[in-house]
Amino acid sequence: MLAHATPTTIAARVRGLSDRAIAWLFVTPTIALLLAINIFPLIWAVYLSFTNFRANRPNAAVEGVGLRNYQRVLNDPDIWIAMQTTAHFVFWTILLQTVIGFALAYLIDRKFRGHGFWTTVILIPMMLSPAVVGNFWRFLYQPQIGLFNYIVSFFTGIPPSSFEMLGSVDLAPWAIIIVDTWMWTPYVMLICLAGLRSIPDYIYEAAEVDRASAWRQFWSITVPMALPFIMLAVLFRGIENFKMFDMVMLLTGGGPGSTTEVASITLKREAFESWLTGRSSAFAIILFVAVFGLANIYVKALNRVKQR
Amino acid sequence: MRKMTKILMGMSSALVLSTVIPGMAKADELTLCWAAWDPANALVELSKDFTAATGTTMKFEFVPWPNFADRILNELNSGGKLCDLLIGDSQWIGGSAENGYYVKLNDFFDKEGIKMSDFAEAAVNAYSTWPKGTPNYWALPAMGDANGWFYRKDWFAKPELQAEFKQKYGRDLGPPQTWDELKQVAEFFTGREIDGQKVYGAAIFTERASEGVTMGATSALYPFGFKYEQTPGKYDMEGAVNSADAVAGLEAYKALYKCCQPPGYTDSYMGEGLDAFKSGQVAMAMNWFAFFPGLHKDEKVGGDKIGFFVNPKQKVAASTLGGQGISVVANTDNMDGALAYIKWFAQPEVQKKWWALGGYAVHNAVLNEPSFKDSQPFAADFLVAMNQVQDFWQEPSYAILLQAMQKRLHDYVVADQGTAQEALDALVNDWKEIFEDEGKL
Amino acid sequence: MSSLNVTAHSVVEPTPTVKRIAGAIVIIYALVTMVPLAWIFLTSVKSPPDSISYPPKIVFTPTLEGFCNLFTTRTRQTPDYIQSLPAPTGACDEITRNRNMVIAGPSNYWPRFGNSLVIAFGSTFLAVSLGTLTAYGFSRFRVPLADDLLFFILSTRMMPPIAVAIPIYLMYRQFGLSDTALGMILLYTAVNVSLAVWLLKGFIDEIPREYEEAAMIDGYTRLQAFWKVVLPQATTGIAATAIFCLIFAWNEYAFAVLLTSGSAQTAPPFIPTIIGEGGQDWPAVAAGTTIFLVPILVFTIILRKQLLRGITFGAVRK
C-alpha cells in the first residue's frame, strides 16, 4: 500500500534535519502513545488473564491459575447465551441496515431536487451520542407515556399500553435492534452511496445500447459493482455492533432477565461490578481474538470480491 | 475551512493547557458522597450548620441509586480523591474495611468520647462493624432505613370499596398484615377505575442492573422464612436459600408482580416506584423509609391521602435492611476536616435536627425521646421495622453474590424463565462457586 | 480511487416520475427518523407533569422548567417556609417555588459539559496533530515495517472498549490518572489517532510530492515544506478527520463511565443520571440532551461536505 521510494536525490540537499530524523520525529510520538495506551495494557491484560487477580482486592496475593480462567469462560453457559444474544443483534441490525441503507442510497442517487439537503437530514442520528440518545429512547418506549407505543397503536390499532418494548422477553431484543437501525442506517447509506457513485456511467450507457432492462441493469451492474462497498459497510457495522455497549446498557441494562445482555455488558459486569479482573481479562482476550479472526477472514473474502 | 481549523485548534490547545494543571484541593473544603435522594437534600440543609460553625465549605456528590454502588466502588477502587466523606451502603463495609478504603474510627471515637452505645444496636451492627458484631468501627451510623410500604389512605377509605372488600374477603379493607392479604388487596385494586384513571395494585421493585429486584424479593423471602445459611457463619446454603419456604416466598413475589404491577414497570426501582405512586397509578407501593418524609409532604398524594405500613409478615416478621453509615475515605487530603464533620454529626442536637429535616437518625437521644413515635406518622413503623431487619450478605464479595441473585431473580420473576425452585437452586450453585473461590467453602 | 466524485455522474438521467417517487420516499424516511429528535426537543420545553401525561401530549404550554431543573438542585420545603423567603430573584426561582421547592444550588451539568468540551477538543487536537505528522511520515518516507505498523494501528480499534478499559483502569490507578481530564484526553487521543493516521495518509498521498520537491529546490527545508506546502493542501482532509475524532470523543460513553467519577466526568455518563424527586426528570434530561446535541448538529451542518468526503473516502481506501 505504501512503499514509495525515498527520493534520495532531494534528501541529500536538505538542510537541517535529515529525512530519516524527520520520519522518526513524526512517527515516534504516535507509536509511543499507542504502545503506552494500547499495547502495554493489552500485554498486561494477557498476563492478568492467567491469574486470579481482582482489582478490588489490592491486599490479596496474586496467583497464577494457568488456563483456568479460559476454561471457565468457555464453559460458562451464561457467556454463550450472551454471545448468542450478540450474534442475534449483529445479524439483524446488519441485515436491516444494509437493506434500508442501500435502498436509500439508491433512491438518493436518483438525484431528485433537494437530495443534498435531505441526505444531510438523514445523517443526523449517527452523529449523536448512543448513550444520551439511547437513554431517551427508554422514555419513548414507555408503554403508558412513551410516544412509540402510541405511534404503533395509531397505525395498527393495538392498544398502546398492551405491549412493553423493553419489558417483554419477546420484544426487547427488537427494541434494541430498532434503535440501532435508526441510528446507523445512515452510515450504511453513505457508504453505499459512495459505491453507487463509483460506478462509471459508460457501463450503464453500454447496457442501454444493449437494451438491457432496468431490472437487469440493477442486478447485473449496480449490485455487483456496489458489492465491495456494501461488504465494507457490513464489516464496519459488524465490528461496531460486536462491541456494542452504551446504547443497550442505557436502554435495557441487559434485561429483562438476560435477554438483551450482549457480550460487552456481560464483560462489564464481570470486570467492573464483580471485579473478577483475571477472569474478565480472559474473556476480553477471547472476544478480541474472535473479532480479529472473523474480521480477517472477512477481509480476505472482501478482497476476493474486489478483484473479480 | 482553513480558518475554521485554526480556530478549532487554538481553542482546543488553550483548553488542554488549562486542564493539565491539576486543581489543588483546598484545605477548608470537604466533599461528601452519597446517593441522590430526598435525605441527601436534607443533609445539604443540615450541613449548612457545620459550615457556619467551622467555616468549612461542603461540596456534595450525589449519585442516583442505580449507579451509586457501581460508580462509588469504582472510585474507591481506583484510589480517587473525589470523596472525603462517604455515606456508603451497608454491604460495602466488609470490602472497604479489608481493602483499607475506610479509616478505622475506634481511636477517634475513644479520643472524642463518641460512644457506639449511644446508637441503636441493630444500626451499629449493620452500618459500622466489620467483622460483623465485633467492636471494630468503620463508620458512624448515619441513616437508618428499611423497606416499607405506603398506600392510598383516601382510596382505602372509600365506603363503596370498603363494603365490596368486606363482602368479598370477610374483613375490613386496611393495610395488609400478611403477604397473603397483601396480594388480596393488590388484586382488589388492580384494573379498577379510580378518579377517572385505571389503577393497579402495587408498585414493587424489579430493577435488573443494580440491586432492585433483590431488595424487593427479599421483602417477600425473609417473611416466608428464607435464610442465607442453615448455621450462621458456615456457608451451608443448601436447604436454606432454596428451602420450600424460600420457594413459596419467591413465588408469592412473582405472583404479586404478575397480577398487580402497572404496565412498563419491568425494570423499576425507587424512582419509578415513587412516580407510579405519585401519578396515582397504584394503590400501594414498597419503598425505603427514607422517602416517607418527602411523600408525606407531597402536595398531590401526601398528607392525609397517604398511609404507611411495615413489611407484612408471613411465617415470621422481617424487613429488608437499607441504610448507611458515614465513613472517612482513607485517601482523603483533608483527614482533620472529615473527622471534624463526623464529630459534629454525632452530637445529639445535630442528630435531632437531622431527624426533623427528614433524615433517619438512629441516635438513642432521638429514638428514645417519648415523643418520637408520634413525631411523624411513620415513626412508630420505623422502630418496628428496624427491630426486625435482615440484610444481604455483607461479605467482601457481596457485589458478585448480589449480581448472581439479580440475574436469577430477574430471569424468573420478570423474564418468566424456569421455576422458583430452579432459580434458587441455580443461585445456591452460583454462591457456592463464589465461596469456593474465596476459600470459605 | 481519487476518481470518487460525490457530486454527480450524468448517467441516463432518471425520469421525472422516478425522481418524484424516490424523493417522496426519502423525505418520508427522513421525517420519520426526525421524530425522536423532535420529541426530545418538545419534551425539553414541557413541564414535568405534561411530559409524563398519559396519553402523551402534543399540544401543551411551553415552559423553561426543564432547563431550570437541569441547571439547579432543589429541595422541597413547606409553603410557610417559602412564604418567609425574600422575593424570587429570577424566572427559575419563581418556577421552582411554585412547586413548593427552593433552589439549593447549581447542578453539575455545566461542569460536566465543560469537561466534555475540554476532553473532546483536547483529544481531537492531539489526535489530528499526531495523526498528520505520522501520516506524513508514512506517506513520504520509508518507515521500517510500515505495513505492519499501519495494520497494527488500525487493529487497536477492534477491541471492545470494555476490554481495553480493564488494563487502562489498572494503569491509570497506578499513575494517578483516574478521573483526570489528562487521562481521558490521552485515552481518546490513542483511540482516535489510528483513524486519523489512516484517513490522513490517504489525503496526503494524494498531494503530489512534486510540490514539496519544488519548494525544497527553492531553498525550503523539509520541515518548512511540510508546514508551508503540505499542510495547506491537506486542510480539507484534516478538517474531515477532525470531525470524526470529535464525534467519537464527544459522544463516547463506555470509557467515560468506567474511568471517571466526578472531576473529569463528561456529559454522556452524566445526562442519564439526572433525576427528579422520583425517577428521571424527563424535561431536564431532554433539556440536557438538547444542549448536548447542539454543538455536534452545528458541526454536522457546517462541515457536511468534508464529512461526506471523509466517510466515503474511508470506505474507498480499504
TrEMBL record, chain A:
Residues annotated as transmembrane: 21-47, 89-108, 120-140, 171-196, 217-239, 281-299
Q: Please name the Pfam families in this protein's record.
A: BPD_transp_1
Q: Which family does it belong to?
A: Belongs to the binding-protein-dependent transport system permease family.
From the Swiss-Prot or TrEMBL record, state where the protein is found: Cell membrane
Q: What is its main location?
A: membrane
The protein's UniProt keywords, in alphabetical order, are:
Membrane, Sugar transport, Transmembrane, Transmembrane helix, Transport
Question: What name does the UniProt record give this protein?
Answer: Multiple sugar transport system permease protein
The cross-references to InterPro entries, in alphabetical order and at most eight, read: MalF_N, MetI-like, MetI-like_sf, Sugar_ABC_transporter
Q: Where is the ABC transmembrane type-1 domain?
A: 83-298
UniProt keyword Transport present: yes
Q: How does it sit in the membrane?
A: Multi-pass membrane protein
Determine the domain of life of the protein's source. Bacteria
From TrEMBL, chain B:
Superkingdom of source: Bacteria
Signal peptide feature range: 1-27
Alphabetical UniProt keywords: Periplasm, Signal, Sugar transport, Transport
Q: Which InterPro entries match?
A: Bact_solute-bd_prot1, SBP
Q: Where in or outside the cell is it found?
A: Periplasm
Q: Which Gene3D superfamilies match?
A: Periplasmic binding protein-like II (3.40.190.10)
Record keyword Metal-binding present = no
Q: Pfam families, alphabetically?
A: SBP_bac_1 (PF01547)
Family to which the UniProt record says this protein belongs: Belongs to the bacterial solute-binding protein 1 family.
UniProt name for this protein: Multiple sugar transport system substrate-binding protein
Species of the source? Sinorhizobium kostiense
Q: Mind giving the lineage of the organism this protein is from?
A: Bacteria, Pseudomonadati, Pseudomonadota, Alphaproteobacteria, Hyphomicrobiales
UniProtKB/TrEMBL annotation, chain C:
Protein origin, superkingdom: Bacteria
Q: Does the keyword Cell membrane apply?
A: yes
Q: Which residues cross the membrane?
A: 21-42, 117-138, 150-172, 184-204, 225-250, 282-303
Q: Which family does it belong to?
A: Belongs to the binding-protein-dependent transport system permease family.
Where is this protein localized, as stated in its record? Answer: Cell membrane
CDD domains in alphabetical order: TM_PBP2 (cd06261)
Q: How does it sit in the membrane?
A: Multi-pass membrane protein
Q: What is this protein called?
A: Multiple sugar transport system permease protein
Naturally occurring in which organism (per UniProt): Sinorhizobium kostiense
Keyword Transmembrane helix (UniProt): yes
Q: Where is the ABC transmembrane type-1 domain?
A: 113-303
Alphabetized PROSITE patterns for the sequence: ABC_TM1
Source taxonomy: Bacteria, Pseudomonadati, Pseudomonadota, Alphaproteobacteria, Hyphomicrobiales
Recite the UniProt keywords alphabetically. Cell membrane, Membrane, Sugar transport, Transmembrane, Transmembrane helix, Transport
